[in-house]
Design goal:
Layout lengths: L1 E6 L5 H15 L3 E6 L1 H7 L8 E4 L10 H15 L3 E5 L1 H11 L7 E6 L7 H17 L2 E4 L2 H9 L5 E3 L15 H12 L7 E5 L8 H11 L7 E5 L4 H15 L7 E5 L4 H7 L2 E4 L8 H8 L3 E5 L4 H5 L4 E3 L4 H13 L1 H15 L5 H16 L1
Parallel strand pairs: 1-2, 1-4, 2-3, 4-5, 5-6, 6-7, 8-9, 8-11, 9-10, 11-12, 12-13
Helix pairs in contact: 1-15, 3-4, 4-5, 7-10, 8-9, 8-13, 11-14
Length: about 375
């Protein structure tokens, strides 16, 4: 089967998923092409050392008049590739793909994977819903990476929608990390002692991650657990980071400074997971976050907001609290910091649950089943 995968700008989970999917499909004999911004090829190496082909196409993050030109170029690439199926990832890539396929004499099957939900407000929310509705009704099959996205697609008129989670990170033995050496290196880098419990958050500094909840919760427990330190690893929206820094200083002015350290983008997240004691995720919404799956594989105690696909992913192998509730988040932190045995128990449960996560071959089989349906 000739399969063309389209994605927009990605620096994390979507790009990782597409790279794994393309590799698995090619390994099983399909002819696979990937189309997306040149930056994604540079970061994820879709065509590096594989039989996967890559063609650059800049897909902007917002709707713009240039979408007409982008859709025309995509249409030429689809026709040249002679695709049996086009699989677009995300709303922006799906919208451009829908435009490119409209009016084609030989139209390939169209699968749209949804990795995010609708989160805007006001006029922007109405525009987002209109775009999602057009995609839901225009795609032959919608694949939601969490159960709530499948329900959203059906509510918006999708004729066919199903759950197809992204692959978990490759499983294997935990990385051999010299914990004391890494802690010593981090302490020197940050200029602080790291002798107490380490709390780790991984994710870009952006509103969807709702770090306000984490900061407020850490401020609440600052007096009770002054030895605990929180590390946040992820690329930063500078305006959002500045706003969060102001929030930290506001708490500090009241004598309850949260012990938070922004690490920026890191390539050693696996090692950071191994030396941390608690993994936290305060997001307003997540599908089935890869960073959460990595923490589970590492056997970390997890505290997360019960939103999107997180409850289905974590189950009872972690502490889940209502989204946006900093007091509940603080209570969860207290429980974990006060009870090392609870941390160990939840960490073991998370590691066992991680063994049941779908791997790259599982994800590829689910996608290919959809391809066979739409190509017929």
């Amino acid at each position: 089967m000739r399969i063309l995968i389209v994605l927009g700008t990605s620096t994390g989970g979507v790009g990782t998923h597409v790279a794994a999917l393309a590799r698995s499909l090619a390994d099983h004999g399909d002819t696979v092409g990937v189309i997306g911004p040149a930056q994604t090829q540079a970061q994820f190496g879709f065509a590096d050392g594989t039989r996967v082909r890559f063609a650059p196409l800049e897909i902007s993050t917002t709707v713009s008049p240039r979408d007409v030109v982008t859709a025309r170029r995509l249409r030429r690439l689809i026709t040249t590739f002679d695709a049996d199926v086009v699989h677009a990832h995300g709303f922006r890539a799906s919208l451009v793909t829908l435009a490119a396929l409209t009016g084609l004499r030989r139209r390939p099957g169209f699968v749209s994977s949804w990795h995010n939900t609708l989160m805007a407000t006001g006029a922007r929310a109405r525009a987002e819903r209109a775009v999602a509705t057009a995609i839901a009704r225009g795609a032959d099959r919608v694949l939601g990476v969490s159960e709530d996205l499948v329900e959203l697609a059906r509510d918006l008129g999708a004729a066919s929608a199903s759950f197809a989670p992204a692959a978990s990170p490759p499983q294997g033995f935990a990385e051999d990390v010299n914990s004391e050496l890494l802690r010593s290196s981090l302490a020197q880098e940050l200029g602080i002692p790291l002798t107490g419990p380490l709390i780790l958050a991984v994710g870009r500094i952006a509103p969807q991650k709702d770090y306000d909840v984490l900061i407020d919760a850490l401020a609440d427990i600052a007096g009770e657990h002054p030895e605990a330190q929180c590390l946040i690893a992820g690329s930063a929206d500078e305006a959002e980071k500045a706003r969060l820094t102001e929030l930290i200083e506001a708490h500090a002015s009241q004598g309850r400074r949260p012990a938070i350290h922004f690490l920026g983008q890191r390539s050693d997240v696996a090692a950071l997971n191994q030396v941390s004691d608690i993994f936290v995720l305060s997001s307003r919404w997540e599908a089935r976050a890869l960073v959460l799956q990595e923490a589970m594989l590492a056997g970390r105690a997890i505290l997360a907001t019960a939103t999107g696909g997180t409850p289905g992913l974590v189950g009872d192998a972690g502490i889940l609290v209502p989204q946006g509730d900093s007091r509940a988040f603080a209570d969860g932190l207290r429980r974990l910091l006060d009870d090392p045995q609870l941390r160990l128990s939840l960490g073991r449960q998370a590691a066992l649950r991680a063994l049941e996560l779908p791997d790259e071959d599982d994800a590829a089989r689910a996608a290919r089943a959809a391809y066979e349906e739409v190509s017929r």
